[in-house]
Amino acid sequence: MAPTARGPLLYTYRPIPANPMTIALLLLVLVVTFGIGPVAAAPEGFWPLGGLCFVPVVLVLLAIALFKPSPTLVFEEGIEASLPLWRRILGTPRYLPWSDVRDVYPRSYEVAGSFLSPFASSAGTLVHTGIGLETHDGRRVLIRFTPGSIRGFRAESQGYQEAMAVIRDRFARRGEPMVTTAKLFSDPEVLAMEREARRPLVRVEWVFAAFFLPPSIVIALLLAMQFLGIPRDPIRILIVLILAFLPPAGSMLRTLRRSERRNDLLSELAKYQEHLRERAGTSLASPSGVGRAHGSS
What we know:
The protein is of the alpha+beta class. It has helices spanning 3-6, 20-41, 55-66, 85-89, 118-123, 158-174, 187-198, 204-228, 234-285, 287-296, and strands at residues 9-13, 72-75, 78-80, 95-97, 101-110, 127-135, 140-143.
């Protein structure tokens, strides 16, 4: 679409190149590959394995490059959503006219990779607030505003607040609703949904069991292999490690699924609250609404 058809640029948000969990994974891979590997694995002949040990580092760096996001641009007539590099290479459309959008509301999302933390299972994953867009043809677009530091995480980052304020102002100036398809909830339903959202994703007892089992599994399997006279070659060692990883993998997968359901719940609540905010603003802006507000003060 021609730049003139998009109208003036109202706001620009530049996402961080990689989220904190990805950087943490990169640091972990670097430490294991270049720190622990030469010391612990090299004497046994398991490093560098003809360069195979460096593959994880290359894969993580490649993933960071392919998932580097583009800026989010808010225009008067539409929005250009941030997309990772690999989707831009495939030619995925970025621009979305406001005329194609039926709902704009705060939407919860999980920061990629945060479900890998054992603490996420009981305390909750790193959930952040972005802007959800739903089009008339049923498409859903999520604008992310992930902060660059885990310590900076909170429900609403500065980038989100600024972008949402600009979008709300744009719709208010034109007298257009941001939400047109919100589900209506009673007060007891809202309270029940909030209680459900605050519940731990997985019981802490299961978390400790899942993440403390792998060393025991490795020791037991290695002792069994020694007792049975099974040689400990790299392939068998890899199988042992995979079996040991199954309990925490199951815990993380369950955490991810429950976190996704919770985010859907929070997003439905946010859409409903955005609808109420708009309705309250409309009633106050009307002459009768002003009179009622003034008379009740």
